[in-house]
Amino acid sequence: MTVSGSNVFSFESIGHLMVRSENLTGALLMMASMAAFTLNDVLMKAMAGEVSLSQLMFLRGIVTTVIVAFIAWKMGVLVVRPARGDRWLLLLRMAAEIGASYFFLTALFSMPIANVTAILQALPLTITLAAAIVLKEPVGWRRLVAIAVGFIGVMLIVRPGATDFTASSLYALVAICFVTIRDLSTRRLSSATPSMFVTLSTSVSIMVFFGVVSLVAGEWVEMDLRNSVLISGAALMIIGGYLCSVMVMRVGEISFIAPFRYTGLVWALLLGWLVFGEWPDTLTLIGAAIVVGSGMFMLYREALLGRRKQT
Question: The whole model's pTM is what?
Answer without folding.
Answer: 0.84
